[in-house]
Amino acid sequence: MVLGPHWRAFAGAIAVTTALVAALPRASTGGQLAGVDTGVIRGRLDIRRLASIPQPRPTVGDLGGRGQRGVPDVRRGLVYLDVAPRSAFDDGEPGRAVMDQRNETFVPRLLAVQTGTTVDFPNSDATFHNVFSLSRARRFDLGRYAAGKSKAVRFDRPGVVRVFCDIHSHMSAFVVVFNHPFFRVTDADGRFRIDNLPPGTYTVVGWYEGEARTQRAVTVTAGVISDLELVVP
Fold first, then answer.
1. Residue 121 resides in a domain
2. Residue 171 CB coordination number (10 Å)
3. Which whole-number Å values give the CA distances from 184 to 30, 64, 110, 204, 207, in the listed order?
């Protein structure tokens, strides 16, 4: 069969489109692409044994049918680069984040931020709360404040900040502060994805409940998604 001029033009356009698609970087299963000049580390932090949480002490209010307390989310960990590329330390805009107090639980239990970030600590409960930390990276005490109120803390130094409430001893959380952007809190199934990484070999650390638990070296290639599994025994 002989194609007319319109069909020949259409076929040529298809060929050009096919060539362009073939030249694109490899896609992830979610359909997102690694950058042309950067790469991606994607994977899972497999936490084999979840942390146990202290039980709240009984109070007089419990005898009167006190409302149900929240259950801290201990399923999430943190993945980050042990040493970040030099370009990661360029000054960025100060960020803002929230750690709520809800059902006598800090939500989220694990919060990761960059230096310069201000974290708001609203009180969404019907009782008073207090937020404080004795951590070296950021020591503070916000005092007691009522339902509907909120206070804030700016985190200017990298490190692990353990957060407590002096009224409710079972309440605790972590704010982990980085001086670079290459970190991710995992989802409830342990999945994570770190984008926009310059090519190179990095040590990737898996962190859980206060300490680094595992690490692996990964080589990042421009335009490629590198899959990684880390195991916390």
1. yes
2. 24
3. 17, 42, 11, 11, 10
- 3-class DSSP state for residue 13? helix
Quote the number of domains for the chain: 2
pLDDT tens, residue by residue, 66-96:
556 788 899 999 999 999 988 777 666 789 9
State the Cα–Cα distance between residues 61 and 82, nearest whole angstrom: 46
Strands of 172-178's sheet, edge to edge? Answer: 110-114, 172-178, 159-164, 129-134, 139-145
Location of structure tokens 């957060």? 163
- How many CB atoms are located within 10 Å of the residue 97 CB? 16
* pLDDT of 233 above 80: yes
The CATH number of residue 232's host domain is 2.60.40.1120
Q: Say if residue 6's pLDDT is above 90.
A: no
Contacts of residue 135, defined as CB under 8 A and 6 or more positions apart, other chains included, come to 159, 160, 161, 162
Q: Would you say residue 170 lies in a domain?
A: yes
DSSP state, residue 99:
-
> Contact at 8 Å (CB) between 163 and 177?
no
Instruction: Count Cα atoms within 13 angstroms, Cβ side, for 217.
Output: 3
Q: In this structure, is the dihedral angle defined by the CA atoms of residues 151, 157, 162 and 166, taken in order, positive or negative?
A: negative
- The structure tokens listed for 17 are 């489109």
- Cβ count near 30 (within 10 Å): 9
Asked, for residue 55, whether it belongs to a domain, the answer is: no
Using a cut of 0.85, tell me whether the model's pTM lies above it.
no
Locate 14 and state its tokens: 């298809």
